[in-house]
């Protein structure tokens, strides 16, 4: 079974500043996907970014970027130029690649608060 | 393009009562998931459908939970009878196929009194 650990329950950042969320995972698989999802108070789980394990290049989506360290099993999310709308709970998630087990395994989440 | 639709958004019931949740996935998505999210935690998979077939229901408490996706589109998740510990958010997600990115609905918040 895969486990995903987010060691920071809460983070606070000033508007326009940068914040980095940590995520580590434990797996014996070599081929998998990693995700960051954002869940604002409205509860809608929104995909932020996706990383394929076979790709060495770190994924980026506008102000969001990841630092994927496969050997260390680490997958951190950097939010640059933080905006008030970034306030939400952020979940790191893991999914095996290949036929069969396509469930997402989530971490416990990190609550991010952006201060004006 | 419409996203994943769920109803109701909120439901309050007395314990031992039945309750049902409905999900309409993104058009064309073959795979549908039901997740349970307890307060302050990440979602956990209850059941996964490939078209109308339940291909992973290992985490579904089958003594009281049931689900169906009769025509391979909409899905219903039912609890009968509900217990106090079932209070949680029930999330539906869909993907084009298994292994593709999952897109989530807004969830149903269930409160069992």
Can you describe this structure in just a few lines?
Helices cover 0% and strands 52% of the residues of chain A. By secondary structure, chain A is mostly beta strands.
Descriptive key words:
heterodimer; A: 116 residues; mainly beta; Immunoglobulin-like; six-stranded mixed sheet; four-stranded antiparallel sheet; 0% helix; 52% strand; B: 113 residues; seven-stranded mixed sheet
How would you portray this structure in words?
The complex is a heterodimer of chains A (116) and B (113). Chain A has 116 residues and is mostly beta strands. Chain A is built from no helices and twelve strands. Chain A has a single domain (3-115), classed as Sandwich (Immunoglobulin-like), CATH 2.60.40. The relative contact order of chain A is 0.34. By secondary structure, chain B is mainly β. The mean pLDDT of chain B is 94. The chains are: A mainly beta (116), B mainly beta (113). The interface between A and B is medium-sized, with 24 and 25 residues.
CATH fold field value of chain A: Immunoglobulin-like
The chain pair forming the largest interface, with residue counts per chain, is: A-B, 24 and 25 residues
Domain count of chain A: 1
Instruction: Please work out how many helical segments of chain B DSSP would assign.
Output: 0
Biggest sheet record of chain A: 6 strands, mixed
Helix content of chain B: under 10%
How much is the radius of gyration of chain B in Å? 13 Å
Topology diagram in text:
The complex is a heterodimer of chains A (116) and B (113).
Chain A: E1 3-5, E2 10-14, E3 19-21, E4 24-26, E5 32-39, E6 46-52, E7 60-61, E8 64-69, E9 74-79, E10 88-96, E11 105-106, E12 110-115
Parallel strand pairs in A: 2-12
Antiparallel strand pairs in A: 1-4, 3-9, 5-6, 5-10, 7-8, 8-9, 10-11, 10-12
Chain B: E1 5-7, E2 10-13, E3 19-24, E4 31-37, E5 44-50, E6 53-56, E7 65-68, E8 75-79, E9 88-95, E10 103-104, E11 108-112
Parallel strand pairs in B: 2-11
Antiparallel strand pairs in B: 1-3, 3-8, 4-5, 4-9, 5-6, 7-8, 9-10, 9-11
